[in-house]
Design goal:
The chain contains 15 helices and eleven strands. The protein is an alpha/beta fold. It folds into two domains: about 160 residues, Glycogen Phosphorylase B (Rossmann fold, 3-Layer(aba) Sandwich); about 160 residues, Rossmann fold (3-Layer(aba) Sandwich), CATH 3.40.50. It has a five-stranded parallel beta sheet, with helices on both faces. Strands 6-7-8 form a three-stranded parallel beta sheet, sandwiched between helices. It has a three-stranded parallel beta sheet with strand order 9-10-11. It is elongated, with a radius of gyration of 21 Å. The two termini are about 25 Å apart.
Amino acid sequence: MRVAYVNQDPGVGPGRRKGAAAHVAALQSALRELGCEVLAVERKDDAGVLAELERAHAQRPLDWLYERHSLGAVGAARFARARGVPLLLEVNAPLFDEARAHRGFEATPEDFARQRMCLESAAWLLPVSRSVARYLVDHGAPTGRIHVLPNAVDTRLFHPGVERAEDFAAPPDALAVGFHGRLRPWHNLPLLGRALEHVLDAGAHVRVLAVGEGDFARALGPRVAEHLAQREWMAHEELARHVACFDVLPLSYAPDAELYFSPLKLFEAMACGVTPLVPELGELPQIVGFGSCGGVYPAGDERALAQQLLRWIERPDERRRLGLEAARATARRSWVDVGREVMALALTTRGVERGAQTR
């Protein structure tokens, strides 16, 4: 099958230092592995996207389009409508809500019209979570074309047997508390810092292992910063060796956080056998099997977070068992698995008549 993968967001283009860019590259690679000819269309302007798709289609017809939805982008939708080529539209966030909250963006009637046109032009809408699916429905998307498609992990890179970066690892007597990615306000790391202070007050040894961009020392606070080791952003091939050094991955989102995303960092850590500890928010408890392959604590409760970390310090066998269960659960969700799911949808040319696919 000949497929055009359209991405009009320059912030997640090839080689960019963020998880979204890794997501784009991983799915393109998976589709190629499954036998698709994938043409990567990486342009910001609608006219350029439309022209590039027209040239490719004239050389040899495209079987379908896959697009990572970007705010205001309509090039692929216009092409799909004009040429009758099925469009699968991946939606990673409630884009208008996100832009308003973090960039002060206020959508105009024209912005809403452009988004509505994209949603109506897609043969399938692929939100990464049920929360994003609800956003799409609220903005006029037909429910019969919605198929929730959570993110995945490259299980060839991230797995329990990956060789650790020993020069980054914590001392044997310390709990290795990990984080990887770009530090953002919604990660709410000050809460984790306060929880780790409680752990230190109890006389336990911890080492915070951070990989990525941001002032982690400031976010965690001066006392916890004394126990921090940080590495800058690195290629995904090397990242897995560093994530494998974590014992636990505690997420500390605030109780009022809009948890609509499908967190790559969580899947990658779980795939390495790292034990996840998540707040009771959104779909996070479901991802960790409601405690069967990780821990769940009341969102915003720093003492409950600290108590669970102390429990795992006292019961390392329990922590390791949960980590292995996390790895087993995540192994069933590789990017190649997602690629197969996408291809199956692309081949379902009469998807609307087959009924709703929302999960």
